[in-house]
Write a structure and sequence with these properties.
Layout: E1 2-6, H1 15-23, E2 31-35, H2 39-47, E3 52-56, H3 59-69, E4 71-72, E5 76-77, H4 80-86, H5 92-101, E6 114-116, E7 126-130, E8 135-139, H6 144-151
Parallel strand pairs: 3-8, 7-8
Antiparallel strand pairs: 1-2, 1-3, 2-6, 4-5
Helix pairs in contact: 3-5
């Protein structure tokens, strides 16, 4: 499971890349989504790599993101009580582990698939360069946790 975060805006974006960002539901800067590690998603990530950053997410970080930034229909916060009432899971931590394992999707529980994050504290690195060159774009691997925690 990948956490994908939009880093750059859409000014001057080629139409097919803009369409890819729309399909990923990344409509604004600092929005994040969860995507599965499948060949079709990997192709979409590679196509939009000049506008996004992504990496593997673990259950602890997903629990924190859902608790702080998760919303369900009606724009209300996701709580342990909501998860217990509307799913087979007792709390957000169990739900996050199930999502990482692929047992359930957030949309099955009416939780919005897009997380609206703050811009990162201390800012992004250069948004025109890849992570390998010291920038913010592209595949980060496990280092996505550092960026996501600065954005919560």
């Amino acid at each position: 499971m990948f956490l994908v975060i939009r880093v750059r805006g859409t000014t001057g974006v080629i139409k097919n890349i803009a369409d890819t960002l729309d399909m990923l539901r990344l409509n604004r800067i600092s929005h994040a989504v969860l995507v599965e590690d499948t060949p079709s998603y990997n192709g979409m990530l590679q196509k939009a790599k000049d506008y996004i950053t992504w990496g593997e997410i673990d259950a602890d970080l997903l629990t924190e993101i859902i608790a702080k930034r998760g919303k369900f229909t009606g724009n209300n916060k996701v709580t342990d009580e909501y998860v217990a009432e509307n799913s087979d899971y007792k709390n957000i931590d169990e739900l996050a582990k199930a999502v990482i394992a692929g047992e359930v999707k957030l949309m099955d529980l009416d939780i919005k698939p897009v997380f609206r994050l703050h811009p990162p504290r201390k800012g992004y690195e250069d948004i025109r360069l890849s992570v390998k060159e010291g920038g913010s774009l592209g595949y980060r691997g496990e280092n996505i946790k550092d960026l996501a925690e600065r954005m919560l």
